[in-house]
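Hi R.,

Here's the chain you asked about this morning:
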Amino acid sequence: MPTSELTDAATSVLTPDEFTARLRALAPRYWDRHPFHLRLHEGRLSRHELRLWAANRWYYQRAIPRKDAAILANCPDVEVRRAWRERIVWHDGSGPGEGGAENWLRLAEAVGLTREEVLDERHVLPGTRFAVDAYVTFARTRPWVEAVASGLTEMFSRGLMARRLVDMRRHYPWIAEAGFTYFTTRLQVIADEGRSTVDIVVRNCRTREQQEAAVAALAFKCDVLRAVLDAVDYYS
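And the predicted structure, written out as tokens:
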């Protein structure tokens, strides 16, 4: 094939199906296959390990609405902003004692942590802090559609979350049912969010360069999530 044809093939815009397939092909990089998650689902974590996981995952949970606020600040599309702001409300709640972040705190309490020690972040590991802060910075500094694309881990998370709910109830029966509220409520919205996010990214990535940047953004997010588990796994 002549050089000019190779160049054209490399820069031609992917069809929506091709683009979506490229994004979905990153599924093996998601954190569901991390050794720590495998042990969690097999019931092989100690109470200490579960507490360390919950405290470090809290640092990620508390960063999500800040990431979403950065997307809102950078996005010029009013329709996207209207849809996206609901994510902040879901995590932060409409008032005290509400929202996904509050439900994660209840899980942390159910595994034996006090609310105080979670909120003061005494158990947050350097690797977790570095990775999560890098994710928020990415959302603030990169084009808004790349930041949205980074959140497409939603495509992979529903199956993992449903399985986690089953496995944790089975293997860790000492965790009070109220501790699982985050998962039960999240499962109700995550499928719709994942589909809408794919639609936003596909619709707004109009060049091959934008499409490749979106794929790279999702790969980066997968690396962020795995870095959090790397830190927890090392110190647990």
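The radius of gyration is 19 Å.

Let me know if you need anything else.
M.
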